[in-house]
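# step 3/5: fold
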Amino acid sequence: MPVPDTSRTAALQLANELDIKYREGFIKNRYIARTFIMPGQKQRKKSVRQKLSAIELEFKDKNVLLVDDSIVRGTTSKEIVQMARAAGAKKVFFASAAPPVRYPNVYGIDMASKNEFIAHDKTTAEVCKAIGADKLIYQNLDDLIWSVQQGNPSIKTFDCSCFDGNYLTNDIDEPYLDNLEANRSDKAKESNITNESSELIYNDAD
């Protein structure tokens, strides 16, 4: 059962390989943006419930395998596991089509703070417990690289920095990442919003 829409391809192939039924258990609100890049945990958690609705018929008294494209902060994963249980699932297994995301992306995606990634300092079993699943399966990085190379064998090198911490430009060090986290983490963003609000109030008073 995919977490729509980005994991449908992976979920369908997984169902074929396991010889089990492929089912659509969630309806997606297409007017809610990607939750992992939203500022603030409170907003991300609220948006997950607005983004997805569980179809009770597909969950009631069933063991389900949920497939998502990745697990970043774990907010979405935890919420949808809870939604599946609330809809009547007996057991909820979770598969991520990506390996554990443990390191920041510095090449254009706003994923700055490694301490905000649920897998950064946790084992698979610990992440599984944190999101409330009965079992968690991550994609293997070597297998992921192999599968992508099947489309173009001439490509030998990929940017896997989010997964293994190896940055291709060779100019990313700990001080750089620390500075990134200090300026772009949730805590920093909240502080900036507070400061901007204070400035507006001060300017209005003038």
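# step 4/5: annotate
The two ends are 57 Å apart (CA to CA).
# step 5/5: archive (pending)
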